[in-house]
Write a structure and sequence with these properties.
By secondary structure, the protein is mainly alpha-helical. The protein has 12 helices and 3 strands. α4 packs across α10 and α9 packs antiparallel against α10. 39% of the residues are buried.
Length: 264
């Protein structure tokens, strides 16, 4: 159960008429909360049986910082949702491209699982508007950051899975993504650096030569920085830092690609 603080803010999801409020204040009144929940459900095309799961999925870690309810932010749901999305994409791509090898499928899946790609889906679903933040954090632009939006998308998918079942979560995840192609829209030639690195290494060293290791994690829960190294058969090729593990891994892969090209 979420803590009393969240219950006071969001209420029980009843049908009380919403009073005018300050949009994006990060401190919605109990009367405004049911209207926000309904809007979020309309955006997601899913009505939660357990509204507290939706509330938790929208609660940024910074909102409950220094609170006894800190465990009730969206990070655990993010962990779960990441696996649900990965499996949904893996199954869909496996069926969509029956004649492709696993290396290509891995590369395409990585493109769709990129932080900026999932952040774009979150924006389309208007999750930036529903993300629960303190006023100072919203004013600082936290709701606009790819890392926060990627996390809330994963969290919402995790919440839907717990509230329903695998089939419902799978169908909705793929609906949010839309038609899958072999070349997802990306940013430049290295839109999928991990996939590009895999393609460089795989022909000679196979599928399992690369390994990503977390070197360091610093900062407060709402403002973390991760440092990751990528190794090829035990030899470090590159490292990277980022506000999420995915961002750090992508930067490490970019450095690794530059390292390999320099050796050619």
């Amino acid at each position: 159960m979420v803590g009393s603080k969240l219950r006071r803010l969001f209420g029980s999801g009843g049908s009380r008429k919403a009073k005018p409020g300050k949009k994006g204040s990060g401190s919605p009144s109990a009367d405004l909360a049911p209207a926000m929940i309904k809007k979020a459900e309309r955006s997601l095309d899913y009505v939660f049986k357990n509204k507290e799961l939706l509330i938790k999925s929208l609660t940024h870690p910074s909102y409950l910082l220094n609170s006894k309810d800190q465990i009730h932010n969206n990070q655990r749901l993010e962990f779960l949702g990441d696996s649900v999305i990965q499996l949904a994409l893996t199954e869909a791509l496996y069926k969509r491209f029956p004649n492709e090898r696993e290396g290509m499928l891995t590369s395409v899946r990585s493109s769709y699982a990129r932080g900026d790609h999932m952040a774009g889906i979150a924006r389309k679903l208007k999750l930036d508007q529903y993300l629960l933040l303190k006023e100072k954090d919203r004013n600082a632009g936290v709701a606009d950051k790819d890392s926060a939006l990627c996390d809330v998308f994963e969290s919402v998918v995790g919440a839907i899975y717990l509230d329903s079942d695998w089939e419902t979560a799978r169908k909705l995840t793929l609906k949010y993504y839309g038609p899958l192609s072999s070349k997802p829209a990306g940013k430049g030639k290295l839109a999928n650096p991990k996939g590009a690195l895999q393609e460089l290494v795989q022909p000679e060293l196979g599928n399992f030569a690369l390994k990503y290791e977390l070197l360091k994690q610093t900062g407060k829960p709402h403002d973390r920085e991760f440092e990751v190294a990528v190794l090829c058969n035990g030899e470090q090729l590159g490292s990277g830092k980022g506000k999420s593990k995915k961002e750090a891994e992508e930067k490490a892969a970019i450095e690794a690609i530059e390292t390999l090209k320099a050796k050619q």
